[in-house]
Amino acid sequence: MKAGGHDWYVKNHFSVCLRGVFTIRNFVIENGVREEVGAATELITVIGRGAQNMRQVTWDVWVDAIVPAWGVQEDLTPQRIYVGCKYEAPSQCDSEPDQGESRPLAQWKTKGTNHYTQIITTSTPNGSGGAERSGRFKYEVVFYNDLLGVKTATAEITGRCDNATYVYTKAGCSFPDSAGNFHLDYNAVYEDKYGAEYTIKDAMEFMHNAMHHLSRVNANAAPGQYVPGGYYKQPTVGADDKDGGWKPLHRLFPKPSRNQDVYCKAQYGADYANVRDPNDPDKIIGKKHCDEYPFLASEENMYRTSGPADQTSAVHPVDPAANEKVGSLLAVFYGGDRILNGDAYFVTLDNMPDNCCEVDGGNGSGNGGTGTAPSGPTAGPVMTTGAVSGLAQLSGANGV
Question: Is 194 exposed, middle or buried (0-12, 13-18, 19+ CB in 10 A)?
Fold first, then answer.
């Protein structure tokens, strides 16, 4: 995720990491005149971790491999490191320590004194930030020259803290400006309460068809329509689209009441839920659930009354155990990634077989994406806050 001119890496929305080699310039002041006398490079590692039982973010900064680049290197020059927290009232931030840590460069070069930790605690009062008491905070990692009295470099990223009661731990902090990614594994095997094994293949095959062969599971889909949410660029979306073809889902809380039955009956017949013995059609040997994609607990579900004309949804009969398990995995993902109402996320179907997946009710090629997910950081909304600043800046920042 790009933020403040740097590549930040996000894991599970709770942790962020920035690592890069930066240039630090050395100055002296004589008779009121500032003169650059040398420069060095520093390998900087920044890790931020949002707590999931309180509104708190812990920041750790390491300075490694300070290497002379040219000129004079002044080991006694004091370098201060701290993490600033900017907020919109009435939210607030409190930091410990509140002024950061100042050490001579010689100490920042030494293992054991090259590490700095700061804890930021936030608050948003009742009546603010919606039902979740959600507040956004801009964290600014600052390198400061105490002799010159100026910032020598900054790196910024935005986070959020909230008191949402519909996630497991209630209070917590995250970095939600990168979309989440909900993974389902075609090869995963689960056990029911009696120890019997089952899979979610039936439900995943339906979702795969909705994403890549839409007419198999939506006979009324118009040419060019697609279902959103898949972790790939939608090929039917124009190049001028503001999201570049990336179309995530967005959590909806609370979710609406289920009424898919009427849609499955319309497409697959009134008897769609009955699994009949092929040797005795009058004998019912199992049942199916009417499943929908996009998920009911997403803004893009089949009941929304507005949205892009080229987006649609699909329904199909699936195995009840698979349907219920996907729902429970989605709930775990929502809590585990701290996905709040309106937050974006993608869906990735892992280990799908080649040439998947014929279904009853049609075998057309359909619409929808056939692209593959890119490597690297999670795709999604891109932050464009801030920039590397000022005197003795961290120049040439290349995240690794």
Answer: exposed
CB 294 within 8 A of CB 307: no
Q: How far apart are CA 140 and CA 97, in angstroms?
A: 15
The total of other beta-carbon atoms located within 10 Å of residue 270's CB is 10
Neighbouring residues of 291: CB distance < 8 A, sequence distance ≥ 6: 203, 206, 260, 315, 316, 317, 318, 323, 326
Q: What is the pLDDT of residues 264-289, one digit of tens each?
A: 999 999 999 999 999 999 999 999 99
Say which residues have a Cβ less than 8 Å from residue 90's Cβ, sequence separation at least 6. Answer: 124, 125, 128
| C-beta of residue 336 within 8 angstroms of C-beta of residue 50 | no
Amino acid at 102: S
As a whole number of angstroms, the distance between CA 110 and CA 131 comes to 47
Sheet-wide strand order for 249-250: 180-185, 344-350, 249-250
Q: Are 171 and 135 within 8 A, CB to CB?
A: no
d(CA 41, CA 153): 12
Record the pTM: 0.82
Q: How far apart are CA 249 and CA 232, in angstroms?
A: 12
What tens digit of pLDDT does each residue of 343-387 get? 999 999 999 998 888 765 433 333 444 443 333 333 333 322 222
